[in-house]
Design goal:
6 strands, 37% helix, alpha/beta, 2 domains, 221 residues, two-stranded antiparallel ribbon
Length: 221
């Protein structure tokens, strides 16, 4: 957790200084916002420059959402149409793997209001389309049963299960071969495999990504 000082006093966005840390990742690039620089953010950026330059395959920033139900993701919108399709593949994987994730709530846009967010910082500085904010309701999720569409309150077990699903979905998306018994994967293994592996490029055959893009259109993404 990056924001324990804010969370402990009841804040869900701001730290103890009252600063929204997910709107400070480009603060040191703009002289007019130098007063908004957060030490925690600068430490994260320094660590990434020193340890992850050229080795980052995916960036996941996990957030609580105060209004939406269920879990979704927000991602940048690359200029390349194949990279756009690739970013949408990840949400399709998650949507297929768990009932708590809602595909229709996902967003793929370079919003001006989010230009200083962590996912946009990673996308622009590391040229990484697989840069996502995972947004989770703090209350519950909508069931995918069209007949009932009930809201189920989240429990700790739901979040623990989604954490496992997120790790497995990441492995599928990055083509990482996991042991047959995935229960044996430790947090360290996931960090090493998913965070520090050599950067991979898009497959030479783009037809599969375009097929997914067509699926996205059909599902009114």
């Amino acid at each position: 957790m990056v924001n324990p000082d804010g969370v402990i006093i009841g804040n869900f966005r701001c730290n103890l200084q009252g600063k929204d840390m997910n709107r400070r990742f480009f603060a040191d690039d703009d002289e007019t916002t130098l007063s908004d620089v957060c030490s925690e953010v600068e430490l994260i950026k320094a660590y990434m420059r020193e340890n992850l330059a050229g080795n980052l395959r995916m960036f996941l920033d996990l957030h609580d959402h105060s209004k939406k139900k269920s879990i979704c993701l927000w991602a940048p919108k690359p200029a390349d149409k194949y990279e756009i399709a690739r970013t949408k593949v990840f949400s399709l994987i998650l949507d297929d793997m768990t009932d708590v994730f809602r595909l229709e709530y996902c967003r793929y846009i370079n919003e001006k209001t989010s230009k200083n967010s962590a996912r946009m910082y990673i996308f622009q500085n590391y040229k990484l389309p697989d840069s996502y904010t995972i947004e989770s309701s703090g209350f519950g999720f909508e069931t995918k049963n069209e007949d009932s569409n009930q809201i189920v309150q989240f429990t700790p077990e739901h979040f623990l299960e989604f954490g496992k699903t997120l790790a497995l979905a990441t492995a599928r998306h990055l083509d990482i071969n996991l042991p047959k018994n995935s229960e044996q994967i430790s947090g360290v293994d996931i960090e090493l495999d998913f965070g520090l592996s050599p950067h991979h490029s898009l497959p030479s055959d783009h037809s599969s990504w375009m097929h997914v893009a067509e699926q996205v259109k059909l599902r009114k993404f």
